[in-house]
Predict the 3D structure of the following.
Amino acid sequence: MNPLVGVLMGSESDMDTMKKTMGVLDDLGIPYETKVMSAHRSPDSVSSYASEVAGRGLKVLIAGAGLAAHLAGALASRTVLPVIGVPLDAGGLGGLDALLSTVQMPKGVPVATVAVGSHGARNAAWLAAEIIALTDPDLAARLREKRGL
Ligand code: RP5
């Protein structure tokens, strides 16, 4: 199936946490693709990915990064797809550095920012599912069933 969600992360070292995102997407039956790219170490890859991804039919991007976490914002600067940012605790400031870097976007370029770490990683997938469910009644029904609503 063609991916509906892009799960991006700034480093291979983010993989363990971002696997929580993938686990929820797997449970919900939502196809996704995953890539490692960095706003700082591979900015050209981030720019070209964000520019072409909507044209391939993806609906939502989820970006996890730690430290000066600019991946979600850099993606959002190049697409009008919804971007969900997952701030990660890469050491030092307990993830507060990544939280502020991800959430404090200027007007007109939103990043929907979830909690630091594994709770946020899981919720990013739930939120992406809720966005996709706006136009997918079967998925909306699955979400209601899993949430007991
Ligand atoms: C960020 O720097 C990444 O998202 C990661 O959380 C952090 C550390 O990256 P590595 O030095 O482990 O590659 O860009």
The radius of gyration is 14 Å.
